[in-house]
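A quick word before the example. In earlier lectures we treated sequence and structure as two separate objects. From today on, think of them as two lines of the same record. Here is Transmembrane protein written that way.
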Amino acid sequence: MAVNAALTQRADGWTRRLNTRHHKAALGVFLVIVIGHWAEHIAQAVQVYVLGWPLKEARGVLGLPFPWLVTSEWMHYGYALLMLIGLILLRDGFTGRARLWWNISLGIQIWHHLEHLLLLGQALTGTNLLGRPVPTSILQLFLPRMELHLFYNALVFAPMVVAMILHRRPNRAEAGRMRCTCAVALS
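And the structure line, produced from the sequence above:
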């Protein structure tokens, strides 16, 4: 029992520091990771729709030298999980309107994560949804995968950016509840 309490206290201390004195830096690192992934999806869409490349050759930036990245369900699931964990871990640093928008992003990412879990499960078992020739997510039954995941990333990214802007520029009541140094000086 004492070991469990010590581990809980250590974890609480770590997440408390992450959402207080390290919140601004942690958000910056998280944003760089998110923008890097977002840029990969945009690069792939540009390769298909602007450059006219066939979908099999359009692999984003990192997928060109490392083609296995695009076809790895583990890599896609890992990123979806990383996003989910980041949104959960950094959530306690947000207050007020920013917290609402962060929660919207988190809710959308939960669904996005479940879609990737479904894809990974199909890849691991070799049994695809509705007998499809490749692993298929639920909404992929209605939209092509590249466009769907570009859309998912936009849906997660937009409210996350709104949350970060509101977090940096809180109203007086929100600023009074903040425990981090993310806010710019109030006038």
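Notice the following. The two ends are 49 Å apart (CA to CA). We will return to this example when we discuss secondary structure assignment.
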